[in-house]
TrEMBL record:
The lineage of its organism: Bacteria, Bacillati, Bacillota, Bacilli, Bacillales. PANTHER family: INNER MEMBRANE PROTEIN (PTHR38442:SF1), INNER MEMBRANE PROTEIN-RELATED (PTHR38442). The keyword Transmembrane applies. The keyword Metal-binding does not apply. GO terms for cellular component: plasma membrane. It comes from Gottfriedia solisilvae. InterPro entries: DUF445 (IPR007383). This is DUF445 domain-containing protein. The chain crosses the membrane at residues 12-29, 35-57, 375-395. Keywords: Membrane, Transmembrane, Transmembrane helix.
Length: 396
């Protein structure tokens, strides 16, 4: 394996200790002997630390000495230890839920968006983005989107059922009688007008003259004014009778209206006409909505005001808290359901690495600190060796 830069300093300390020890051995001077003792101790300390550090990752000099290559041999235990710490401590369900609970994403998001709208540059970019998005959508596409969204709703609306409900509602609220009385009152007011009285009278006289020749000869004898007055009074009496709740004619007319209305509930022509109105009304509405959307997307002031109103509504309506609570509930459920996936993902990625890759990875990550262990071992050995050699010479 290529030697890493992090090991060079440690190797250099061993080289210095070895060179110093060999260089000072032939000399007998006391000072040189003290240095020799220091270099000897430095060499022993450096070699001992080199052996200890190397034994963590691999067999020293590739010799399978017992209790060496600790990390490769204990790969499974280390993996399980990492997963246990990950699942139960670092990223436990409780810690994740606590972190989720501390955050207020929706509120922060709304505040951030509001700040962007208060900033001229950001505001212009947002409005331009909305307009660009709107202009990129063809009119036919907008119509299709609206039509597709309304298709299910329109399909579920039964014209026959709606018409049946309308008729039932009319009868339940007696709107048929109220409408009938309203029309009779209006007709009565109309008939009481002098010019209408004259018009109706003359029309009836002309009708009699055209259809009944024998009666025509007697009309001048009676007098036109008397005939008009007679017809007018007859019409008013008929209207008064039709207004009377106990009148048989009134009951007959209302009964006829209700019978015909009930029949219309299943009348195919009526239902077909209602379906045509529904479809044509939907088509018209889609066109109008499409035109409205396109016009509003071209209005920068309208877009800005709409965004501001929407933000104000969201903040005042309490939607922020409601959405935040709902969002957090979803996250809680996801954590409960998929928390174990974190461990599985880490395990899968660890298992993808070979033992040599894991060893190399760990050695590189903590290589600087390990290097200093070896350097410190050599330096401490050197100092201790000097002290011991000095004491030995003194006592001799």
């Amino acid at each position: 394996m290529v030697e890493k830069n992090s090991k060079r300093l440690a190797n250099l300390s061993l080289l210095v200790a070895s060179t110093g020890f060999v260089a000072t051995m032939p000399f007998q001077a006391k000072f040189i002997q003290i240095l020799s003792g220091g270099f000897e101790a430095a060499l022993v300390g450096g070699l001992a630390d080199w052996f200890a550090v190397t034994a963590m990752f691999r067999h020293p000099l590739n010799i399978p000495i017992p209790h060496t290559a600790l990390l490769p041999k204990n790969r499974a235990k280390i993996t399980e230890g990492i997963l246990s710490s990950l699942n139960n401590q670092w990223l436990s369900k409780e810690s994740l839920i606590e972190k989720v609970n501390e955050q207020k994403w929706i509120e922060k998001g709304v505040d951030s968006f509001e700040n962007m709208l208060n900033d001229e540059e950001s505001k212009e970019k947002i409005i331009s983005s909305i307009q660009e998005f709107g202009s990129s959508i063809q009119k036919k596409s907008i119509e299709k989107i609206i039509q597709d969204s309304l298709h299910t709703t329109l399909k579920s609306i039964s014209s026959e059922k709606i018409w049946s409900n309308v008729i039932d509602k009319i009868f339940q609220n007696e709107w048929d009688e109220k409408t009938y009385e309203f029309l009779i009152d209006k007709i009565e007011d109309y008939v009481k007008m002098p010019h209408i009285k004259e018009l109706i009278g003359r029309e009836i006289i002309q009708f009699i003259e055209r259809k009944f020749f024998m009666i025509k000869a007697f009309l001048p004898m009676i007098g036109e004014e008397k005939i008009i007055e007679f017809i007018h009074n007859g019409l008013l009496d008929l209207l008064i009778e039709l207004k009377n709740p106990e009148s048989d004619r009134r009951k007959t007319i209302l009964s006829f209206i209700r019978i015909e209305a009930e029949k219309s509930k299943t009348n195919e022509n009526v239902i077909r006409q209602l379906d045509e109105w529904k479809n044509s009304g939907a088509t018209y509405a889609i066109q109008e909505v499409t035109n409205w959307i396109q016009n509003k997307l071209a209005d920068r002031t309208y877009i800005l005001n709409t965004l501001l109103r929407l933000l104000d509504f969201i903040k005042k309506s309490g939607w922020v808290n409601k959405i935040d609570i709902s969002f957090k509930k979803i996250l809680y459920q996801l954590i409960e359901k998929y928390h174990y996936k974190i461990g599985e993902l880490v395990r899968m990625n660890i298992e993808k690495l070979s033992t040599e890759e894991i060893t190399d990875l760990l050695e590189n990550k903590i290589g600087k600190d390990i290097t200093w262990i070896r350097v410190n071992g050599a330096v401490c050995g050197f100092l201790i060796g000097i002290i011991l050699s000095t004491i030995q010479i003194i006592f001799k």
